[in-house]
């Protein structure tokens, strides 16, 4: 199994685990409230499936660790990016910064890139992204932050940091967590 396939499989299993945990907890709540046998049966089925998924996650962690140690030919680096703004609904500043970054010389050699809009608890629009590069940057990280965080003479948050190992999977899952919400689905099309 390829390195990236392992990461994607792990991410898919983490989403499945979350869904099963929700289903299990909901079935338990229904059982406790209504004392229905079918709710208890749903609870035990979800619990059994959850144990299976957790075993698969453990297995993938082991395979990933072994593959990562053995894979000396891969020089790809992963980076987590957050582009923030002070906007509550306007996606333009973040979108402009992201597109400018993608169109730059540094953005030309991405192996992969994935980005999603998010509106946090405070309601501010931002983008979370993950990119994979084969080589380093043309400038230092602080210079990248300053250069690609500048929009119409105003400095916006443009945070970039290198991630590795299981941190890659965690970040990939984190950036997708709200992607199925109505607002997110609509604005994420702008990133395609």
Comma- or semicolon-separated keywords:
192 residues, alpha+beta, Replication Protein E1, Chain: A, 4-stranded antiparallel beta sheet, two-stranded antiparallel ribbon, 6 strands, flat
In the CATH hierarchy, the third-tier topology of the largest domain is known as Replication Protein E1, Chain: A
Give the C-alpha Rg: 20 Å
- Give the number of DSSP strands: 6
Main sheet characteristics: 4 strands, antiparallel
CATH architecture of the largest domain: 3-Layer(aba) Sandwich
Numbering strands along the chain, what is their spatial order in the largest sheet?
A: 2-3-1-6
Number of helices: 6
CATH class of the largest domain: Alpha Beta
How much of the residues is beta strand, in percent? 15-25%
Q: In which range does the helix fraction lie?
A: 40-55%
User: How far apart, in Å, are the first and last alpha carbons?
Assistant: 28 Å
Q: What is the overall shape?
A: flat
Structural write-up:
This protein is an alpha+beta fold and 192 residues long. It has 2 domains: 68 residues; 115 residues, Replication Protein E1, Chain: A (3-Layer(aba) Sandwich), CATH 3.40.1310. Helices cover 54% and strands 19% of the residues. The protein has 6 helices and 6 strands. It has a 4-stranded antiparallel β-sheet, with helices on both faces. Strands 4-5 form a two-stranded antiparallel ribbon. α1 packs antiparallel against α2 and α1 crosses α5. The longest helix is centred in the first third of the chain and has 34 residues. The model has no long low-confidence stretch (mean pLDDT 83).
